[in-house]
Every structure is written in structure tokens, then in C-alpha cells.
Amino acid sequence: MKTEGIRLYDISRTVSLDLAVWPGDAPFRYEHVLRRRDGASVNLTTLTLSPHTGSHADAPYHFLDGAPHPADLPLEPYLGLAHLVTVSRRSGGIVPDDLAGHDLNGARRLLIRTWVSDLPDDTWPEDFPYLTVELVDWLATQGVILVGLDSPSVDAFDSADLPCHHRLWHHGLVHLEALHLVGMPDGVYELIALPLKLTGVCGSPVRAVLRAARPPLWR
After folding, report:
1. pTM of the shown model
2. In CA terms, which of 89, 103, 117, 125 is 20 to 30 Å from 19?
3. 155: CATH
4. Residues forming beta bridges with residue 86, ordered by sequence position
């Protein structure tokens, strides 16, 4: 989608019956309650899906009892200028040195692209890059308020204590997981990835979009 001087990039995974989900989580499903072809006035469907389906925002309730649900999350971190960077790490924890060479001056939102973005929607990675407490601490000192990545979690696949989830919360940072950053040039964009106003649940799918515009619009 293009308008004069502006281009939109959809960085969301497509939610379909083939979309890979976290092992053991509920796969996306839908059923027709009404069909026009059967004489109804409308097509009406019912959805079944996990709050962590596709590209999504975790809510702190996901890993802390009594913590906020998606409806309680501040919206400002999910809307604004974001720095997109590519890192070469194939697995293990991403550390500050992995971001060497990238200009993050003034970054408030950081999106990290890895090889995971190149995977099709129906393929699940178990050995993916993830954040480290060291990186989260460093980003907090830089004034970052949101971290997004293409991996399905900010912690390792087999992590039970979820140190990076907790460290992000400790510093007041929010995060996005399972973004689809394939083919995106590194640079500064406007991020739009608002969670749904859901209560009582542990996360929310998002329609994540980057908007690039000619300067000075994205300064």
C-alpha cells in the first residue's frame, strides 16, 4: 500500500489454519455459524485461537499473577518511531555486541530481525535467537521502551523461569514476538502494533505495520 511519499510494510504473520504455534498451544481454527450459501443473510464465523497466535504482544499477566492484561497496557510504546536492525546470530542469547555497527542513537523502540523472519508461516523454530538479561539491561539504559523480534519468544524455547520476560517488566519495557521482518531494510520507521483491548487474558495478536516516509516525517 502506497500513498504520496509514504509506504506501509506489513510485518505481521498471516493467521491461517497452517500457521505454526507454540507446541501445545491452541492452533488457530474457525467454524461457520451461519452461511449465505445455506440461506442466511450473512456469513458468520467463530474463532478459536491463542492470544499468542502469530505476531503478538505479551501481557505481564502471561508470566506474573495479578499483573496487567492487554486492556491495561499503555498504548504509547506500540506506536512511534522504531529502529529496525538485523543481527547475524543463529541461536542463543542476543547480547549488546550483536548490535555493534548499528546506529541506535535516540532509539525508543527496537525491532530485531534474524534468520527466523525467512521461515514460512507453517514452520516452527525451536533453536531461535532470544534476548539476554544483559541486553535488556543495556537497552533500558538507552531509553528503549519496546523491543520486538521475529523469534516466538524473548526467552529460550526451554526456559522455565523466563528471565527476560521478567527483566523487561522490571524495567517497564513492553515487547512484541513473532514479527515477520523478511525483506525489510534496516532503518528508522514508524511502528503501529496496538494490542487489542482484551481483559483477563495473557496477550494479544497485533497487526504490526511499519510506515516509512521521506524526511522529515520520520525524524
Report:
1. 0.93
2. 89
3. 3.50.30.50
4. 113
